[in-house]
């Protein structure tokens, strides 16, 4: 999946939320769960566009296309946040986090949890690097 995913329209975003939440899914399942009533052909067109944009893939079961996300929701969200960080804060995630704290979007407990997760991730990466070097 490309690091620079194209923007999604409202309907595409709603369909992707369904794919992430209920995947793998067929066009019929998506159509039944959408908040608005659409023809199945319209839903298939949206799913095809999501494939073209790199958000979804499909397999074939008999004659039915079964769709699944190309990447987990969290990874796509992280890429979207990175784009925002690059646009508005010249790539400074620290500036974004400080802004989130200043605007009361994150509290002290959430910051501690985030710091713990970062420390665990760094430790895990360090172990993986050591494993590669010892062989």
Features:
135 residues; elongated; two-stranded antiparallel ribbon; mainly alpha
Can you describe what's shown?
- This protein has six helices and two strands, in the order H-H-H-E-E-H-H-H.
- It is mainly alpha-helical and 135 residues long.
- Strands 1-2 form a two-stranded antiparallel ribbon.
- Helix 1 crosses helix 3 and helix 2 packs across helix 3.
- The longest helix has 26 residues.
- It is elongated and about 50 Å long.
- The protein starts with 9 loop residues before the first helix and ends with a helix.
- It comes from Bradyrhizobium zhanjiangense.
- Keywords: DNA-binding, Transcription, Transcription regulation.
- InterPro entries: BlaI_family, WH-like_DNA-bd_sf, WH_DNA-bd_sf.
Quick take:
The chain has 6 helices and 2 strands, in the order αααββααα. By secondary structure, the protein is mainly alpha-helical.
Helix amount: 55-70%
Average the pLDDT over all residues and give the rounded result: 89
Strand content: 5-15%
Number of strands: 2
> What structural class do the secondary elements suggest?
mainly alpha
**Total helical elements:** 6
Q: Main sheet: which strands, in order across?
A: 1-2
Quaternary class: single chain
Keywords: DNA-binding, Transcription, Transcription regulation
Family: Belongs to the BlaI transcriptional regulatory family.
Organism: Bradyrhizobium zhanjiangense
Protein name: BlaI/MecI/CopY family transcriptional regulator
Topology, please?
Layout: H1 10-22, H2 27-33, H3 40-53, E1 56-61, E2 64-69, H4 73-89, H5 93-102, H6 108-133
Antiparallel strand pairs: 1-2
Helix pairs in contact: 1-3, 2-3
